[in-house]
C-alpha cells in the first residue's frame, strides 16, 4: 500500500512544491497573519488559531494538515501520494522558518492585495508541480465522499466558515479584507496555472477553405484542421477550417482570410488553454484540483 505513496514521484515536482510552499509561507507571515487577514482555507484557519489561541501559524497548519492527510489516506486511499504529503509538511516547515520575519506593511488593503497575490503565486506553483498543500482540499474530499456534495461546494462552504470566523473572532471589516485576499489569490492561482499567454480559435467557413489552410500553414506556420459542415438553411455541404493561434496573430489571420475570400464567415473565440506543438508542451495534469486549493 505504501508503495502507492510514491506513484508519480519526480524530484522536479518536489522542488517545485517546495518553492511554492516557501512563497506561500512568505505571504502568510509577511502580509496576512500579522494583519489578521485570513483568506479562507487551512492557512486562514491557522491565522485565526494564531490570534485566538496563541498558536504559531506553522503549528496550526501542521495540526490541520497532518491529521487530514492521515484520515484521507485511510478513508479515501493512497491516491493523494507523495506530492500532497510533501505540500502538507513543507508549508508548516517554511512557515516556521519565516515566522521571525518582520511584516512588510500594516496597511490592511495592501496586505490583503499583495498577500493574496503572493499566496496565489505560491499555491499556483505547487499546483503546476502536480501537488497540493493539503488542508481544506482534503477536508472537502472527505465531506464529498460522505455527503454527496461536490468538492467545489464543500470548498466554498469551508471558505465561508473561515471568513465568518474572522468576522466573529476579529471584526466584520477584517472579514471583508479576508474576502479581498481570497478573491485575489484565486485569480492569481488561475493565472499561474494557465499562464499569461492567451490563444484564440478561429472557425472559418469558406468556399476557399483549402487555399486559406495552405496560406495558414505557409505564412503563419500554424496547423489547421478541415471539418465537414452543412448549412442548416441552404443544406449545402461546406468545409469549416479550424485554426488556433496566439492573440497577437489574430489580425494577420483575418487579413489572410480576407485576401482570399472576402465573403468568408469567421468566428474567433477565446481559448482557455492549449496543449500541443506550437503552444504549451506541458503535460496534462491528472487529478489536478481546483485553483482554490490552499
How many domains would you count in the coordinates?
A: 2
**Approximate helicity band:** 55-70%
- Tell me the strand order in the biggest sheet: 2-3-1-4
Give the number of helices.
Answer: 10
Give the N-to-C terminal Cα separation.
27 Å
Low-confidence stretches: 283-294
Q: Average pLDDT value?
A: 84
**Helix/strand order:** HHHHHHHHEHEEHE
Strand content: 5-15%
User: Helix/strand/pairing class, anyone?
Assistant: alpha+beta
Q: What value does the Rg take, in angstroms?
A: 24 Å
Largest sheet: 4 strands, antiparallel
Q: So what's the overall shape?
A: elongated
Total number of strands: 4
Structural account:
The longest helix has 23 residues, at 172-194. Residues 283-294 have low confidence and may be disordered. A hairpin with a 6-residue loop joins strand 2 and strand 3 (237-246). The chain has 294 residues and is of the alpha+beta class. The chain has a 4-stranded antiparallel β-sheet, covered by helices on one side. Helix content is 58%, strand content 11%. The protein is built from 10 helices and 4 strands, in the order H-H-H-H-H-H-H-H-E-H-E-E-H-E. The chain has 2 domains: 2-194, no CATH class; 199-271, Alpha-Beta Plaits.
Provide keyphrases for this structure:
2 domains, 294 residues, single chain, alpha+beta, Alpha-Beta Plaits, disordered C terminus, four-stranded antiparallel sheet, 10 helices
Amino acid at each position: 500500500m505504501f508503495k502507492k505513496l510514491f506513484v508519480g514521484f519526480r524530484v522536479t515536482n518536489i522542488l517545485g512544491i517546495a518553492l511554492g510552499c516557501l512563497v506561500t509561507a512568505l505571504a502568510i507571515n509577511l502580509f496576512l497573519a500579522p494583519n489578521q487577514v485570513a483568506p479562507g482555507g487551512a492557512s486562514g484557519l491557522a491565522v485565526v488559531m494564531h490570534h485566538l489561541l496563541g498558536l504559531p501559524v506553522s503549528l496550526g497548519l501542521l495540526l490541520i494538515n497532518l491529521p487530514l492527510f492521515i484520515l484521507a489516506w485511510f478513508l479515501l486511499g493512497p491516491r493523494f501520494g507523495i506530492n500532497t504529503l510533501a505540500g502538507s509538511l513543507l508549508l508548516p516547515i517554511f512557515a516556521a522558518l519565516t515566522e521571525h520575519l518582520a511584516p512588510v506593511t500594516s496597511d490592511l488593503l495592501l496586505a490583503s492585495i499583495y498577500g493574496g497575490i503572493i499566496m496565489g503565486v505560491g499555491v499556483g506553483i505547487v499546483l503546476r508541480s502536480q501537488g497540493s498543500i493539503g488542508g481544506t482540499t482534503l477536508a472537502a474530499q472527505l465531506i464529498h465522499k460522505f455527503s454527496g456534495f461536490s468538492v467545489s461546494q464543500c470548498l466554498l462552504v469551508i471558505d465561508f466558515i473561515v471568513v465568518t470566523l474572522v468576522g466573529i473572532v476579529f471584526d466584520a471589516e477584517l472579514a471583508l479584507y479576508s474576502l479581498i485576499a481570497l478573491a485575489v489569490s484565486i485569480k492569481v492561482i488561475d493565472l499561474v496555472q494557465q499562464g499569461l499567454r492567451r490563444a484564440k480559435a478561429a472557425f472559418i467557413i469558406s468556399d476557399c477553405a483549402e487555399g486559406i489552410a495552405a496560406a495558414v500553414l505557409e505564412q503563419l506556420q500554424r496547423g489547421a484542421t478541415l471539418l465537414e459542415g452543412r448549412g442548416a438553411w441552404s443544406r449545402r455541404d461546406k468545409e469549416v477550417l479550424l485554426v488556433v493561434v496566439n492573440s497577437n496573430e489574430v489580425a494577420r489571420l483575418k487579413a489572410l482570410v480576407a485576401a482570399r475570400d472576402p465573403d468568408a464567415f469567421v468566428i474567433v473565440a477565446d481559448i482557455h488553454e492549449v496543449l500541443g506543438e506550437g503552444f504549451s508542451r506541458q503535460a496534462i495534469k491528472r487529478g489536478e484540483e481546483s485553483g482554490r486549493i490552499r
